[in-house]
Structure formats: C-alpha cells, structure tokens
Amino acid sequence: MTLQKDVSDSQNILIHACCAPCTAYCAEKLETDGYKVSVYFYNPNIHPESEYKLRFEELIKFAENKNYRVIEDNEPAERWFKAVKGLENEKEGKKRCEVCFELRLEKTAMFAKQNSFDGFTTVLTVSPHKNSFLINQTGKKIAEKYNIAFIERNFKKQDGFKKSLELSGKYGFYRQNYCGCIYSRGKKFKNA
C-alpha cells in the first residue's frame, strides 16, 4: 500500500532540481497549480566541478528572478561514486540511472521531512531521456518510507519539454548536452 498524503490544503513543497532549464517549466507549472515551491539542488552526480557550478549559478539566477528559495546540498561526490560502483558501463537509462534517481530523491525526501515541507517532487520527469514511470515509482516508494507526500508528475506531458525549451530561450539559460554523470558524457569527458 502506497501512502499518498493529500497535499491539496498543504502546499509547501520541495522540488528537486538538476538545472535551470528543467526547473523553469516545472516550478512555474507547480506554482500555477497552487503550490508554494522551494528548490533543492542535490546532484553529486554532476561532473566535472565546473559543470556543477555553472548549473547551480544558472539556477540561482532563475530563482532570484522568480523569488524561489534555493537550498544547495553540496555533498561530496564520493557517496554517488560509491552508490554506482560496478555500474559504470551501464547504458544510459539503466540500473546506474535507477540508483542515481533513488539517491537524489531520498535526500530530497529526507530534507523535506526534516524541514516540515508538505511534500516533494522532482524536475527529472521533464526530460525526454528520463523514464518518468520509474522516477515516479521511486518517488512514491521513498515517500512511503519517510511518510511524506510525493507529488507525482510527468512534466514532459502536454508539451512540457517543449515549454522548457521556450523558457530556456526566454531566460537565456545555458543548456547542457548530457545529464551530468561522467559516464553518460563518456569519451567527451575524458577528452575535456
């Protein structure tokens, strides 16, 4: 049995964010739906450090423009590398990604619970390269573990990804060409 706490009257939610381009559409959509959004940047998977800093700086510029609170959890990458050890050669979208989603969503849920948020969600489902069903199943499982609501969304529906591209142009965001994981970047990273 999955616990789904009703957040219709309690709308203070924490949204896990990986970058400004994905966050813009998702946060604005949630706001339109009546939620008060705070942004949680926890991404020990993003490498190299220059990429991490660039994504975070872009997110901060967007958040300041929209008056969103941003929380950065800049945990050392060692935890992520340990979690995906042995999965380095997995193809994009397979087991390594599952482990990565779970790690990041669990930290988001823990922070949300410890800081009295009514629920949490993630921007990861806006990407056409990410399995929304898997991400939402992971979020619901973690929500049950921590007794907090998970706001299940597939943000790529109803042209969500297209709208995120339009907002990226409007705000002049830097748009990355890989998820952030050095293994998804492959040979391009080794030659950088």
The strands making up the biggest β-sheet line up spatially as 3-2-1-4-5
Give the helix/strand class: alpha/beta
Name the helix and strand elements from N-terminus to C-terminus, one letter apiece: EHEHEHHEHEHHH
Please report the distance between the alpha carbons of the first and last residues.
Answer: 47 Å
CATH-scheme architecture? 3-Layer(aba) Sandwich
Shape, per Cα inertia axes? globular
Mean pLDDT: 88
Provide a count of the helices.
8
The proportion of residues forming helix, as a percent range, comes to 40-55%
User: What percent of residues are in strands?
Assistant: 5-15%
What name goes with the CATH superfamily? Answer: HUPs
Low-pLDDT ranges: 1-10, 187-192
> Would you report the number of β strands?
5
The CATH C-level name is: Alpha Beta
Rg over CA atoms: 16 Å
Count of spatially separate domains: 1
